[in-house]
Amino acid sequence: MKPLADDELMRRVRDGELDRLGELFERYQSPLMSFFYRFNWDRQLSEDLVQEVFFRILRFRATFRDGTPFATWMYQIARNVRVDNFRRRRPESAFDESFQGPADAAPTPAERVESNQEEALLRQALDRLNDDQRELLVLTRFQELKYEQVGQLLDCPAATVKTRVFRAMQELKQVYFELSARPRRAAGPEPGMQEA
């Protein structure tokens, strides 16, 4: 039997088949976790925010309208959850290194070191972008939403989203290369410098 499409599952949840929400949770738990994690770098907080999204989906299920793609509707809720969380707490820049993305073939130790260094640089570069730029890149590059979907979220044309994403990518590249060009310094003052 062919699995139901997301929109159909959500229609059924809206119409009272609440157990169907579990299927949507299984499909979107990991992408939502990734979405939140790229903003706060905290695994536990990201898990809590995913739970909050699904709580709100259940609570506001009657607002889901036919013709609205489920993913677009869900990410609008996720954006609201993220903003509400940001207002409650100041973002922390500490990374949760225990979080691993989807499992791929096991990399060699050298590949892991290089990958970890590149990921740390990417995290730092993302953190230096303004919130709007980071959100655009997370939605389009990491969550793989189409420009039309993001346009619906942001209430602007897909062409505007495409332009903004291009500019955000240019900024990310510039920040990334600036960070990667910096010499790595050991802890402590530079030679010849005295601590204040």
Write a concise keyword list for the protein shown above.
66% helix; 196 residues; 2 domains; globular; Arc Repressor Mutant, subunit A; 8 helices; mainly alpha; Rna Polymerase Sigma Factor, Chain: A; disordered C terminus
How many H/I helical runs?
Answer: 8
Query: Which range best describes the helical content: under 10%, 10-25%, 25-40%, 40-55%, 55-70% or over 70%?
Result: 55-70%
The helix/strand order is: HHHHHHHH
The whole-angstrom Rg is: 20 Å
Kindly report the average pLDDT value: 83
- How much strand content do the residues show? under 5%
Could you please describe the fold and organization of this structure?
There is one protein chain. The chain has 196 residues and is mainly α. The chain folds into 2 domains: 1-92, Rna Polymerase Sigma Factor, Chain: A, CATH 1.10.1740; 110-183, Winged helix-like DNA-binding domain superfamily/Winged helix DNA-binding domain (Arc Repressor Mutant, subunit A, Orthogonal Bundle). It is built from 8 helices and no strands. The radius of gyration is 20 Å and the shape is globular. The model is unreliable at 91-105 and 185-196 (pLDDT under 50).
